Amino acid sequence: MKSAASWIFVGTFGRVLECWDRETREYVAIKVVRSIRKYRDAAMIEIDVLNRLAENEKYRSLCVQIQRWFDYRNHICIVFEKLGPSLYDFLKRNRYQPFPVELVREFGRQLLESVAYMHELRLIHTDLKPENILLVSSEFIKVPSSKKSSQDEMHFKCLPKSSAIKLIDFGSTAFDNQEHNSIVSTRHYRAPEIILGLGWSFPCDIWSVGCILVELCSGEALFQTHENLEHLAMMERVLGPIPEHMIRKASSSAQKYFRRATRLNWPEGAVSRESIRAVRKLDRLKDLVSRNADHSRAVLADLLQGLLRFEPSERLTAQEALDHPFFRNPT
């Protein structure tokens, strides 16, 4: 019925193929999952979540659409509508030049709408990141870039013709009322309560949204780290000290990151001088936004402060974030 045209993506779970559907005469994306129990289980969770999301017509404009699924030689294959590149792919193509604030506003609004819808259904995505946000269209335009070479040569960057995006990859999605794994989220977008072993719920998605918006504005991941202590030190550098009540409640495995259960063991506990330098080069959140957001910097910084609060219960909800002036006043 279908013939594979090319690979779109290869990952640990399997691969995604671009295929031509001879029945509908259109291109589709087929996620072919490895024949391993844990990946098959995740694929069945994803199918269940996608079907739940599809029960509401509003879903069509928020999340990738499943068309059908089948089991081929013990590989779960999920057929999706064909979409464009991810926001991460687009940043990479532009050599990590940031998106204009107007586009960040549109991306942020749509992302928060999809998260608000999932949270309404008591679903937690748990793996929000630019790789899992796809542009609906692959079309783009070239515009002059502010980046110039040493010869003063004009550079160009790509901008998507359409700001429409959809959320993908629901294989790690958790139901609010089920038992939660202790570790979720891709490292750079992982909330502090997860690292501290305090348990997690809907607010972990909100933290990830905050990290994503900073990355879209700056061109670089906010917390580029692969180690817990350095990650927590980066958080303190950007956002201020971790609240003492969270430190005191941290799991026994996380207590080693602190001295006398009140202060982060940094820089004493750093694994290298490079690690200390990586933390030191980070700016406070307001300064980081000021460098990249121009006239919207104050209102954007205020939104990000609400999304990136250490205490999960104090973070904005997705719906509260959508009501923020950053989205109400596009000036």
From TrEMBL:
Is the keyword ATP-binding assigned to this protein? yes
Reactions accelerated catalytically: L-threonyl-[protein] + ATP = O-phospho-L-threonyl-[protein] + ADP + H(+); L-seryl-[protein] + ATP = O-phospho-L-seryl-[protein] + ADP + H(+); L-tyrosyl-[protein] + ATP = O-phospho-L-tyrosyl-[protein] + ADP + H(+)
What the entry lists under Pfam families is as follows: Pkinase (PF00069)
At the top of the EC hierarchy, this enzyme's class is transferase
Q: Any idea where the Protein kinase domain is?
A: 2-327
PROSITE patterns according to UniProt: PROTEIN_KINASE_DOM, PROTEIN_KINASE_ST
GO CC, sorted alphabetically, is: nucleus
Q: Which domain of life is it from?
A: Eukaryota
One annotated GO molecular function is:
protein serine/threonine kinase activity
Task: Provide this UniProt record's keywords sorted from A to Z.
Answer: ATP-binding, Kinase, Nucleotide-binding, Serine/threonine-protein kinase, Transferase
- The reply to whether Zinc figures as a keyword in the UniProt entry is no
Mind telling me which SMART domains this protein's record contains? S_TKc
The EC number of this protein is 2.7.12.1
Q: Name one GO biological process term.
A: regulation of RNA splicing
Q: What does the sequence similarity comment in the record state about its family? A: Belongs to the protein kinase superfamily. CMGC Ser/Thr protein kinase family. Lammer subfamily.
Protein name per UniProt: dual-specificity kinase
